[in-house]
Amino acid sequence: MNKSMIIGILGGGQLGRMTAQAAARLKFKTHIYTPHANDCGLQVATDFTVAGFDDVAALGAFARSVDVVTYEFENIPAAAVDTVAAITPVYPGAAALRVTQNRVREKSLCRDLNIPTAPWRAVSDLESARAALRELGGAMILKTTEQGYDGKGQWKIDEQTSGRVDEIFSKNPGQLIAEGIVKFDFEISVIAARGLDGEIKCYPPVRNEHRDHILWQTHAPADIARVLAARAEGYAKQLVEKLDVVGLLAVEMFVVGDDILVNEMAPRPHNSGHWTMEGCATSQFEQLVRAITGMPLGDVTPHGKYVMTNLIGDEIMRGAEMAREQGGTFHDYGKGEARPGRKMGHVTVKL
Q1: 348 pairs with which residues across the strands?
Q2: Per-residue pLDDT tens for 7-18?
Q3: Arithmetic mean of pLDDT over the chain
Q4: Residue whose C-alpha is closest to residue 153's, from 168, 136, 135, 137
Q5: Alpha-carbon distances, residue 208 vs 47, 60, 83, 160, 345 (angstroms)
Q6: Sequence-distant (≥ 6) Cβ neighbours of residue 162 within 8 angstroms
């Protein structure tokens, strides 16, 4: 580990911003690469490049200007990561990225590892979608395999709405995934960190609540039986190791009675881990920096119980007031326009 290293970050949103801030506290410089000149991460990075992910020359120059690279979201084109990785190490690697940016590949990996998920079928046309609907009990969630987040690219289909499938395929050609509808008790997530030396540490499972398909609150740690918490962490460890992730892997799961089903995963910092900024000695963002630079992983023991609340759209206007009223900490991401559905900041409160 060399504190003169420059960390490159692909993507300049709030996750890139908070990673750059954590890197600065550890005395590292950062260089953000993003296609968007108004990204909030550019406000805090040491340097930045504004260019497209298809700009091979710009990607090459960026790669040569840094010592190690990570990314803040999983929908970066894998080809862009390949271009950078040919020059400078990228963590997590492109192989992990290719799996986690595609729902069929995610579910297939879980199947191969005997990790339970909701029942699912890969579908590519109207006939296979109708067969999936029958096999999944007459109701399913049809999803795009890539580019979906915060409820985007998802449609609930049953016998009465099956006529919509034709329209969905016409607007989303190619492979989709059909998932059976699971009546789960609640959602939890686990963030696993893995260092260059293979050491793995998991933050404790947290319980997530959503509004309009967007994460609203995270309750940390989750109030669940110890055996379930251990099983959830075990699944996360299996996945982070199998994917050979250096960095972070966030794994979303459903609690269904005494069972846990893995839903989705993301090889980056995660919204449900924001509580760690106040709640642990080592935040998820610092842990990412530690992992990719070869530092020892930090302590993940919670300081207590916390609630993290996302501030969506114009809720940001009340962020400071909410923090004062509840004795919490307000984080403003420094974004410009407070559009509906846009994550603008968060408040974390110790209970």
Answers
A1: 308, 329
A2: 999 999 999 999
A3: 94
A4: 168
A5: 35, 39, 36, 31, 17
A6: 130, 133
